[in-house]
Structures are given as structure tokens and as C-alpha cells.
TrEMBL record:
Gene from which the chain derives: IL12RB2
GO molecular function: cytokine receptor activity
PANTHER family to which the protein is assigned, alphabetical: INTERLEUKIN-27 RECEPTOR SUBUNIT ALPHA (PTHR48423)
GO annotation, cellular component aspect: plasma membrane
Membrane topology field: Single-pass type I membrane protein
Family: Belongs to the type I cytokine receptor family. Type 2 subfamily.
CDD domains: FN3 (cd00063)
Protein name per its UniProtKB record: Interleukin-12 receptor subunit beta-2
Subunit structure, interactors included: Heterodimer/heterooligomer; disulfide-linked. The functional high affinity IL12 receptor is composed of I12RB1 and IL12RB2. Il12RB2 binds JAK2 (via its N-terminal) through a membrane-proximal region of the cytoplasmic domain.
Localization annotation: Membrane
Length: 762
């Protein structure tokens, strides 16, 4: 091929000249012949070499014994194979045959080298067919593979493998006659079988592989033991919950389909099985007493039998603090792996017999617990690679146990293989007030939105309609109670609150907002200091006698009226109203008897004379509260129009009581003294009646301190004292005392009256 290029003003002009050269055919190479099966035809192939670009004819020639010649021409332009259409019979398998191919075109010809062979060299047997397998007595230990083959086949080769394996097991069988025993098959395993054949040990070629036969071997009794782990949880003071977990046996150990697991629970001291249970699951939970030592055994069963039981003694896995591993950490090793490391438990490191690393997907608030994973580690190994069921963006709770006999210690940590900021924030569901602070409760972020292990929660708050930066409180995840208290809010101020969560990768978006206003109950601590100070001052003041007296008087003045109990008026007694004549006769007889036989030990009978309603009281605090000057009688006191007994100009009674005398006067002091001239028919004159001793019922109250009422008699007191020492206040309401009726007569002696604190009885 030659290329010419012309460059003009507009664009270059390219001219390509292609020269094709016709050549003589090349010598064919690699001539070979084959016959498929005993009844097949001879077919030869070769390499024709370079293309001659001319019509070329290829002629195949085969010479056999007895000068037999077979020839066939190929008219195809690209001919490189030919089928002679003849069958070489096996009568003389050692007979020699020679094959040659010749290429001819208009320029010349070329022939291949002759290829000599026998029937055994070129015949390739057909693949075996009708393959089947037989298990004697349904046992995998005696397995026979059977097939059908051509009659001249002398050698077979077998290959088989489990379905999930990539490598084949090869077996050669000579003169097998369509039968071979296999002794190394595994029970309850699906296998694939193929067979190939050959006519001679050294000559000829192997047939193609037969079609695959797939079958499952029979089951056998399990040989392995279960890997069992457990968790222990207290329910109350006398019960505990035991949760058992075990892993499936491997196929080589199960040797069949596991139909169920048998769990046996027994108390060590008794030795007798307490409970036997059958389950199809790989976990089992039961409630047992907290007292006593307990042990469990678990075994797996298939159609052929049961495995050996695994025995476990139930102990407190975290009870021995000295055995707890130290410095537990979990680091990511790729997307699906976690590397857990720890250090020995200090002085108890030599006692550790083995370590157990357990992990569980952390699902806060989930109703069903996720599956538990665990693995065993020898005491000299202080790390473990967790790769079973590890997913990215999922937080796992990892616990390392150190076991020594029937004791154990543990330590835990959380970890994840990959993390990022949570997709959502916590949802505040309730805010309540308690003792001047608020309690915030929230719902956990869904596990699929946590995107790893949460390290902290943050609670934000700020005043409503405020542009200031919000305040926050950060709570570590492990020690975060729900609800959480906040005591820095001001009362009667509306706040906006929300929450976020943080992982090692960042902070989540804020959750929902809630408004809250603290009602403002005062904090008890704000009253402690003032109360203590006030108490100290009061103790100091009351320790002085004069202050103590004044405080006592003030308290008496402030005492309400209902605190005093009414004292009844004896004039209103039923006896005085119904039996006046009997009383007078009885009194006269008694007076006559006392006069005739005086007894010095007997007290003088006091006669209470009936007082008229018109008597003016000697003390009326409602109109004249001022006290008289020292030494003066009660003069100029107010007298109403209805009071006609005494007036402002009347002289004071001879026995008027003073306000400063120290003598005590009984409430029912005698109003008239019985003298020699006093008779039942001659009552005491009004001049002998003390107005202070009886007050009408409608005139206020009786004085509580009658001894201190003013008197006309002067008293000797300190001239420096201008005010009375005591303030007389009424304690008896006027409604409690009533005058005697006219039917009672003029006399009423105290020996017929019984007086109490709350009532008056005759």
C-alpha cells in the first residue's frame, strides 16, 4: 500500500493506493484426526496458513490397512476441517492409518506432513451416562456410584465435591465396569459427581465429562457439642431470670438437620432434673429462685440421635470485681469489623482461665432484644476481632468477661464500625415541675437514625421571644437519667426547650420544641438563713424578763374571743327556777342549825343575793378605756338611760375593788354577807352590794383580773409609775352569765351549785 499527499490552498488531498498480491498456498500444519465414540466418523482438522487471496481447494486423504484409501475435497474458501464420513471399526484396533491434506490454487499447491495413528489413538469415548448413587443401609460410610459406559472403555476417572466448594476430589478407576465405592463422603452434605472414560491406559484421549449428578448424603448422629452462653437478671428479691443462648453446630458436627434442642435445668444440691424442655430455637429463658446453685445442660438432636450435652453452671458473671478486665476499648477495623482490646484484671490476672467477649446491637427501648454474639478467648490473648453480624452505623454494647472457676468479672464499652451525625434529635414528650426545678423526659432516637453510638445529649433553653444565645446542659449518654432535672430556670418566665444528640462525628438536628413556664414556688433554701436569724433574735429578746412579759401581755390581747370558754351564770340553773320555796326552807333550817351549833371548822355559808338589772357596771371599757389616776375611785363613768342603780354623782360602794391591790377575788365572790341582821326576809341593802361582783348579761364581759379594778381607796405605789402593770382584758363573754329569775328568790348558796370549766349544773 502506497500513500500520496497533495497540499493545496484549501485542504490537503490524500490518495491511497492498495496493492493485493496473490500467493501460492502455504503448507497446512497441525493435522489431527478424531473419531467420537465407537460408532462415530473420522474428522480431521488443520491450520491452513496465510490467505492466498485466490480460490484454494483442500483435499483430505486417509490411507489404511490393505491399501484402503479415503479422500474428500473441501471447496470452502476458508476450509480448515473435513469429516470423511467413515467409521473405523474396532476389529483391528492396532492397525495404522495415515492422513494427509493438500492445498491447490492457480499459482501452485502445498501438502501437509503425513499423520499416522491407530484406532485407539483417535477414538474418543462418549461420556458415561445414567449415573446414580446408592447408600447401603442409609449410611454415608458405604456409598456406591454407578454408571453406564461404552464396551471398549478401560479406564475411568471420577470427580466429586460439595456444592459450596470450588475444588474437586479426583479418583481413577481401572476396569470399573460402571461401579465404584466412595468412602470419604460427609453426612448430610449435598455433593456433585461427574465421570469421564478412556479406551487405553496410555493411548487415546479422555471423553468429555458426564452430566453432573447432585445428591445429599444421609444423616448421622451429631458428634459436636453446643457453644452455650447465658445471661442472668434479677427480677425481685427471691427470683431471677436465666437466658440461655447457643450457636448452631457446624455441618460437619450436626451431621444432619437439627430437629430440636433439649434443655435440662437442675439444682446442683439435689442432683435431680427439675425441668426438661424441648425447643427449636437457639435460645431459652426461664425464671428460677435466687437461692441455691443451678446448672443447665443443652444438647442437639437430629433424626439419628443427639449430641453430647454441654453443661453450664449458673454463676454471677460480673460478681467478682477483682476479675474485671481493665481498659476495655473497641476500635473500627473496616466497615464490618471491630477490634476489642483489654488489659488483665490486675492482681487476679493469673487466676483467669478464659475470656468471653459478648456483643449485642444497642436498641434502647426495644421490646424485643436483638440476638447476642460471643466468642471465647484464651487467657494469654488480650484482643478479639468481632466480625459476626457487625453492620456500619449501628452501635453495639460490648462486654468482656474474665472467668475463673465459678467466678467472673466483667467490664463493658460501646462501639461502632462506622459513624456519622444522627439524622434526628430526641423528642421531648413531657416537662414537669418538682421542688422549684423541672424534669424533662424524652423519647430515644430510633436505632436506625442514631448512625452510631451517641456520646452526649444536649438540652437547650432560652426565654421566649428572646434573641440571646440559648443556654445548654450536656448529659453523658451512659449516666443520663430520663427524666433529667434542670434547676436554673427563673419562675414565671416562659422558656423554649429542645434537645440534640451527639456522636463522635457531630451533632444531630434539634428535636421538637416545647414551651414551659415555672410556676415559681419559692425554694426552701431561701428561707433557711432568715428563719435561723429570726430565731436567734427572738431567743435573745425573750431571754430578757421585761420583754418577755410585754410579749406575753401582747399575746393575751391578741387572743380571739372564741379561745375562751364560757362560764355559766348560776342564776339560770334549773333548780333555782323550779324549787325556790324548798331552797328557802332548807336554807332557813340550815341557818337555824348553824346558829345553834356553831362549828369552827365549818366554812361560813355565803349567800348570793339577787342583783337587779338596773345596776350600773363599775367598769365599761367600751366607752371609757382610760384608767383613773392613782389613788382615785372610779368616778365619772358613763351611765346609760337604762342604768338607774348608780350614776356619775353617786358615791362609790364601800367595798369597791381597786386596780392595784394584790388580793385575788373569786369570780363568784359573795355579793352580800350574812350578818346578824340579815334574814331571809330582809335582803341585803343595795349599799352592801358590789357592782363589780355581778354584771348584767348584756353589759360586755366580766374582767379577767378583778383584783386590778380601780377603787376609791388609795393605794401606796411608786409615784414614778403612771401606767398600770397589767391590762385587764375580758375573757368571759356576756352571753355566758344571766341574772337569776324571780322564782329563785333572793338567795342562792354555792353548796347547791356545781361548777365546771364548760358548764354550770345545779
Amino acid at each position: 500500500m502506497t500513500r500520496f499527499e497533495y497540499v493545496g490552498q484549501r485542504s490537503p488531498l490524500v490518495v491511497v493506493l492498495l496493492f493485493i498480491f496473490k500467493v501460492v498456498p502455504e503448507q497446512p500444519q497441525n493435522l489431527s484426526c478424531i473419531q467420537k465414540g465407537e460408532r462415530g466418523t473420522v474428522r480431521c482438522t488443520w491450520d491452513r496458513g496465510q490467505d492466498t487471496h485466490l480460490y484454494t481447494a483442500y483435499t483430505l486423504q486417509l490411507k489404511g490397512p490393505k491399501n484402503l484409501t479415503w479422500q474428500k475435497q473441501c471447496n470452502d474458501h476458508y476450509c480448515d476441517h473435513l469429516d470423511l464420513g467413515i467409521n473405523l471399526t474396532p476389529e483391528s484396533p492396532e492397525s495404522s492409518y495415515t492422513a494427509k491434506v493438500t492445498a491447490i490454487n492457480s499459482l501452485g499447491s502445498a501438502s501437509s506432513f503425513p499423520s499416522s495413528f491407530t484406532l485407539l489413538d483417535i477414538v474418543r469415548p462418549l461420556p458415561p451416562w445414567d449415573i446414580r448413587i446408592k447408600f447401603v443401609n442409609a449410611s454415608v460410610s458405604r456409598c456406591t456410584l454407578q454408571w453406564r459406559d461404552e464396551g471398549l472403555v478401560l479406564l475411568n476417572r471420577l470427580r466429586y465435591r460439595p456444592i459450596n466448594s470450588r475444588s474437586w476430589n479426583m479418583v481413577n478407576a481401572t476396569n470399573a465396569k460402571g461401579r465404584h465405592d466412595l468412602l470419604d463422603l460427609k453426612p448430610f452434605t449435598e455433593y456433585e459427581f461427574q465421570i469421564s472414560s478412556k479406551l487405553h491406559l496410555y493411548k487415546g484421549s479422555w471423553s468429555d465429562w458426564s452430566e453432573s449428578l447432585r445428591t445429599q448424603t444421609p444423616e448421622e448422629e451429631p458428634t459436636g457439642t453446643l457453644d452455650v452462653w447465658y445471661m442472668r437478671q434479677h427480677i425481685d428479691y427471691n427470683r431471677q431470670q436465666i437466658s440461655l443462648f447457643w450457636k448452631n453446630l457446624s455441618l460437619s458436627e450436626a451431621k444432619g438437620k437439627i430437629l430440636h434442642y433439649q434443655v435440662t435445668l437442675q439444682e446442683v444440691a439435689g442432683g435431680k432434673a427439675t425441668l426438661q424442655n424441648i425447643t427449636e430455637h437457639t435460645s431459652w429463658t426461664w425464671v428460677i429462685p435466687r437461692t441455691g446453685n443451678w446448672a443447665v445442660s443443652v444438647s442437639a438432636a437430629n433424626s439419628k440421635g443427639s449430641s453430647l450435652p454441654t453443661h453450664v453452671n449458673i454463676t454471677d458473671l460480673c460478681g467478682a470485681g477483682l476479675l474485671a478486665p481493665q481498659q476495655v476499648s473497641a476500635n473500627s477495623e473496616g466497615v464490618d469489623n471491630l477490634m476489642v482490646t483489654w488489659t488483665p484484671p490486675g492482681k487476679a490476672a493469673a487466676a483467669v482461665q478464659e475470656y468471653v467477649v459478648e456483643w449485642r446491637e444497642l436498641h434502647p427501648g426495644a421490646s424485643t432484644q436483638p440476638p447476642l454474639g460471643w466468642l471465647w478467648s484464651p487467657p494469654y490473648n488480650l484482643s478479639a476481632l468481632i466480625s459476626e453480624n457487625i453492620k456500619p452505623y449501628i452501635c453495639y454494647e460490648i462486654r468482656v468477661h474474665a472467668l475463673s472457676g465459678d467466678q467472673g468479672g466483667c467490664n463493658s464499652i460501646r462501639g461502632n464500625s462506622k459513624h456519622k451525625a444522627p439524622l434526628s434529635g430526641p423528642h421531648i414528650n413531657a416537662i414537669s415541675e418538682e421542688k422549684g426545678s423541672i424534669l424533662i423526659s424524652w423519647n430515644e432516637i430510633p436505632a436506625r437514625e442514631q448512625m452510631g453510638c451517641i456520646l452526649h445529649y444536649r438540652i437547650y433553653w432560652k426565654e421566649q421571644d428572646s434573641n440571646s444565645q440559648p443556654q445548654l446542659c450536656e448529659i453523658p449518654y451512659r449516666v443520663s437519667p430520663n427524666p433529667h432535672p434542670i434547676d436554673s430556670l427563673r419562675p414565671r418566665v416562659t422558656y423554649i426547650l429542645w434537645m440534640t444528640a451527639l456522636t463522635a462525628a457531630g451533632e444531630s438536628p434539634q428535636g421538637n420544641e416545647r414551651e414551659f413556664c415555672l410556676q415559681g414556688k419559692a425554694n426552701w433554701s431561701t428561707f433557711v438563713a432568715p428563719s435561723i436569724c429570726m430565731g436567734v433574735i427572738m431567743v435573745g429578746v425573750l431571754s430578757v424578763r421585761c420583754f418577755r412579759q410585754k410579749v406575753f401581755v401582747l399575746l393575751l390581747a391578741l387572743r380571739p374571743q372564741w379561745c375562751s370558754k364560757e362560764i355559766p351564770d348560776p342564776a339560770n340553773s334549773t333548780w333555782a327556777k323550779n324549787y325556790p320555796i324548798v331552797e328557802e326552807k332548807t336554807q332557813l333550817a340550815l341557818d337555824r342549825l348553824l346558829t345553834d351549833c356553831p362549828t369552827p371548822e365549818e366554812p361560813e355559808t355565803l349567800v348570793i343575793n339577787k342583783v337587779l338589772h338596773q345596776v350600773t357596771p363599775a367598769f365599761r371599757r367600751s366607752h371609757h378605756p382610760n384608767w383613773p389616776e392613782k389613788g382615785q375611785g372610779v368616778q365619772g363613768h358613763y351611765t346609760s338611760e337604762e342604768d338607774t342603780g348608780y350614776s356619775a354623782s353617786s358615791p362609790p360602794p364601800p367595798r369597791a375593788l381597786t386596780a392595784e391591790t394584790g388580793q385575788g377575788v373569786d369570780l363568784y365572790k359573795v355579793l352580800g354577807s350574812k350578818g346578824p341582821d340579815s334574814t331571809p326576809g330582809n335582803p341585803a341593802s343595795p349599799s352592801t352590794v358590789l357592782p363589780v361582783d355581778y354584771l348584767p348579761a348584756y353589759e360586755g364581759y366580766l374582767p379577767s383580773n378583778i383584783d386590778y379594778l380601780p377603787s376609791h381607796e388609795p393605794s401606796i405605789t411608786d409615784p414614778r409609775e403612771e401606767l398600770p402593770q397589767h391590762i385587764s382584758l375580758s375573757i368571759f363573754p356576756s352571753s355566758s352569765l344571766h341574772p337569776l329569775t324571780s322564782s329563785c328568790g333572793e338567795k342562792l348558796t354555792l353548796d347547791q351549785v356545781k361548777m365546771g370549766c364548760g358548764s354550770l349544773m345545779l
